Amino acid sequence: MVETGEIKQPVDLLIEGRLLLMNYKNEILSVLENDKVLGFKTLTNKTILINKTDETGVENWIHHIFHPLQVSEIDFLEKMSKRIFPESYRIFLTQCNGVFLFGGNFYIYGKAFFKKGMSRDEMLYQPYDLIQESEDPPCKIPVELFYFGGTPETVFALNLDGSVLELKRRSGKPVSRSDSFDIWLIEKLNSTTVF
Q1: Distance between CA 155 and CA 139 in Å, rounded?
Q2: Residue 127: which domain range?
Q3: What share of the chain is helix, strand, coil (3-state, %, to 5)?
């Protein structure tokens, strides 16, 4: 989104031949803009780290926006998961291979992987892995829902109609529903900044 005065205007983005109105990565970065003064680092693989802390003498970052995936990598991840990815999640992965925000109070799964030649930081800062997390969900998630992330108290799932449900982490009881991934992401990012 681009700010023009008080109004945010959508920025056109072409991905896989489709015109999108929301750039997820830019939306996340705009919410975290004030935290950039506390530290900002882009790794070689394009993972972005924001808000550096050194509380224990060890470098730590509060926000991780993981490098985008290629379409072929998304296709492979989808095949390995044995699930059909909702279109909104596929598009999100082309911009961010998951996120870990607000010190872990908001996260979206991606694909963790290691390859020869990665830096120490690239190996250290990896998203929670969608396949591993889906194999052992914290609550019973109906088969028609696509489990893709959470908070310490809730889990996020996409419904067949494109809506996003937030469920209690242990009971699976619905907490909230948003009509679309885009609306949900904007609402969550703006409500989670209190962490």
Answers
A1: 9
A2: 2-192
A3: 30, 30, 40
Question: What would the DSSP string read from start to end of 112-179?
Answer: ----TT--HHHHHS-PPBHHHHHHS-SS---TTSEEEEE-SSEEEEE-TTS-EEEEETTT--EEEEES
Asked if residues 163 and 178 have their Cβ atoms less than 8 Å apart, the reply is yes
What CATH number does the domain containing 83 carry?
3.40.1580.10
Structure tokens at 144: 């028609």
Q: How many domains does the chain have?
A: 1
pLDDT in 10s for each residue of the chain, 195 residues: 333 334 333 344 444 454 456 899 999 999 999 999 999 999 999 999 999 988 776 778 999 999 999 999 999 999 999 999 999 999 999 999 999 999 999 999 999 988 899 999 999 999 999 999 999 999 999 999 999 999 999 999 999 999 999 999 999 999 999 999 999 999 999 885 544
Segment (H or E) for 9: strand 7-9
pTM of the model: 0.86
